[in-house]
Write a structure and sequence with these properties.
By secondary structure, the protein is mostly helical. It has five helices and no strands. The protein is elongated, with a radius of gyration of 22 Å.
């Protein structure tokens, strides 16, 4: 995860802005303009934690869904079994 590396470079290793930008361009495959804007985002105290927490939360949700995927699929026939079917069911529901 490039964004976590950028945050660690800035706040733990004390990397310069240029080092962070260069890293983002090389490994994040971003343009210089995009890397500069992302650096500004990372430096903003209101948003810098977002750079780490969002990807970690995304992974947690993904893992949660992946573990329960087959349980959810197995439940679908039961969920939809009571719903009306056919073209008239769609018309009557609206």
């Amino acid at each position: 995860m490039i964004n976590i590396n950028l945050v660690l470079m800035m706040h733990e290793l004390g990397a310069s802005d240029q080092d962070v930008i260069d890293y983002q361009i090389q490994y994040g495959l971003d343009s210089k303009e995009s890397a500069v804007k992302y650096l500004e985002f990372l430096k903003d105290p209101l948003y810098r934690s977002y750079a780490c927490l969002y990807p970690m939360g995304r992974q947690l949700v993904y893992d949660h869904i992946e573990k329960r995927f087959h349980t959810i699929l197995a439940a679908l026939p039961h969920i939809y079994s009571g719903l009306p079917t056919g073209k008239t069911a769609v018309i009557n529901n609206y």
